[in-house]
Amino acid sequence: MNQKPYKIIALSAIITASNILPVNTLAAEIEKPVPAYKDIGQISNQHAEYSLGPEGLKEAMEKTGSSALVMELYALTILKQSNANFNGVTIRDGSLKTKVINHQNIARNNATQWLDILKPKLITINQNIVSYNTKFQSYYETLVEAVDKRDKTVLEKGLTRLSTSITDNKERVDQLLDDLKKFRNKLTRDTQSFKEDANELTSTLAATNSGIPMLQQQIVAYNETVSKYNRILISSAIATTLGPIAIIGGTAIIITGAGTPLGVALIVGGVSATAGGSYGILQAQREMNTARLQIQNISSEISQAQLQVATLTNVKNQTEYLTDTIDIAISALQNISNQWETLGKKYGSLIETIRTISPNDLEFIKQDLETAKGNWENISQFSDNMYANDIKIVNKTSN
């Protein structure tokens, strides 16, 4: 049996360490218009317009959760990728090697900041939604009783306290938005500097090694097909809360409650699945195998310079996509802030209405409260489950 050269195996390890997702597919954000209440004195016949529930919040949470998982995938990949080692490779400007290694270390620090500091804050924002539901449920009976007793004072006081909680939640979201924007600005500067030095180094090596441009093209082709596969699974995990996500062989799979790797089951079995997108998963897997074969064909005699350029290309791509994805996370989180603001305005309008109408006209609020109670329970459960989808790096145990 022929043994693969060490450098080919090393290249394979580099390629399987790359988990690049296309950020543009997650970028479409459309905010739903919120009804305006210009004549709040005539809402007795417009009960549905006074929604006290989390309208629009679920969609914003899905987008935030998806972007968080995408960023986690990039960050983990950056952390597990080894530094490019250009020892023994002749480079005219020796300082470029030092600069590139420094850029990789900075990229790891940025990845760690996301995983250890910013993502936990994002989860806290999610937990605040659960906490608000708990508060709403605890106030529900008191508010309904106040309506039955025509007690405007108690009703207004309860709604005002809920409105204050809404304001507090929005302020927490806005603070995290500020933190993310500062992080984004640092990422942008670091990534641009990394790209400039990495591109210069790669161009220098390519001038004396004709195989480098072709190798880079094949790496990009492979990463694009892997990204299709990962995107499908991550979006499915968020939308349906299928389970945690694992990285195996450079791709993401969803681990179901029964312990079956959903992605692998779809690919190996080749059958339709209710999880959705099975055809797309199969197609992406076929394209991924084709790209991998192309890489193997051109890497039979890979040089040390080519191997290190492959490493450098993957790390650089991860930092680029991490930087791009932070904008999506910011946009999604801004939507959550907007939803809290909209909800606060609705509460404010309702409180003003209660102050101006007769106690005998309070009955319309009961149905709004009942509907909101159910909606908050549902979104609280969704919020609880959403971050159960976590990303872990695992080793492939089967051939």
Task: Characterise the protein shown here.
The protein is an all-alpha fold. The chain folds into two domains: 254 residues, Hemolysin E, Chain: A (Up-down Bundle), CATH 1.20.1170; 92 residues, no CATH class. Helix content is 70%, strand content 3%. The chain has nine helices and three strands, in the order αααααββααααβ. Strands 2-1-3 form a three-stranded mixed sheet. The longest helix has 55 residues. 40% of the residues are buried. The N terminus and C terminus are likely disordered.
Give start-end ranges of low-pLDDT stretches.
3-48, 240-278, 393-399
CATH topology of the largest domain: Hemolysin E, Chain: A
Give the strand line-up of the largest sheet.
2-1-3
SSE arrangement, N to C: HHHHHEEHHHHE
Give the assembly state of these chains: single chain
In one word, what is the shape?
elongated
Q: From the helix content, strand content and strand pairing, which structural class follows?
A: mainly alpha
- Reported CATH architecture of the largest domain: Up-down Bundle
Strand segment tally: 3
Report the CATH C-level class of the largest domain. Answer: Mainly Alpha
Number of domains: 2
Question: Helix content range of the residues, please?
Answer: 55-70%
Mean of all residue-level pLDDT scores: 73
Q: Approximately what portion of the residues adopt beta-strand conformation?
A: under 5%
Largest sheet: 3 strands, mixed
CA(first)-CA(last) distance:
17 Å
Rounded to the nearest angstrom, the radius of gyration is: 26 Å
- Number of distinct helices: 9
Keywords: Coiled coil, Membrane, Transmembrane, Transmembrane helix
Organism: Bacillus cereus VD133
Transmembrane segments: 232-256, 262-282
Coiled coil: 281-315
